[in-house]
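A quick aside before the break. I want you to see a complete sequence-to-structure record at least once, exactly as it would be stored in a machine-readable document. Don't worry about memorizing anything.
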Amino acid sequence: MTTFNEKLIYDKLLEIYPNQLIPITELSLNDSADKMFVESSVTGFNFDSVLNCHPDCAKKEKSPDALFYVDRKLYFVEFKEGGSKKEDIRLKIHEAVATIYNFAIQQNLGISREDFFKMDIRYAVIYRENKINPNPTFANMLEMTSKKYHLKNLEGYIVKKTRVAGHPVSIFNVLKSVSGGSVASILIHKDGEAPIQVPA
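That is the input. The structure line, written in tokens, reads:
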């Protein structure tokens, strides 16, 4: 039975970093301010724990918070406050892809450069909105057409697909997708407000 390259990399990360499969609640936590964002017991891989394995660059790179594997796809997910910088968001996916490329080489996973860049790698940014738009359809349309982080021009180059989500319904849909349906509901925390449950 064939093991897909995306799964080879994900399984090897779990083997090398066995204690880094942690709840989304912790993955989305704003460490600097100790603020909860998305509350869910479903787990993802804490990609912040991974070092770049290149011998000339064995250090912590900038990276997205989480990595999920489902249906032959690797999903990087970054949880951010709404005021985050475009450059920071874009740099994280560049360095994350470089890190897993070097990881695959160091671990002798037998993935050629050509095959590596054929892999289905995706990137989602989930950000905390300052104001919740009451109309989820309109909010979704804004997110899809938003140039907030200019991620669309990375598609087909660094990653296959990108997504930006800030509305609670969009956040839930992204997390449900990257978890293979394991996320059935979430709580979203906003400053000075009661948590929002999605679905309501």
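Two observations worth writing down. The chain has a mean pLDDT of 86. Helices lie at 5-16, 24-27, 86-106, 113-116, 136-145, 168-178. We'll return to this after the break.
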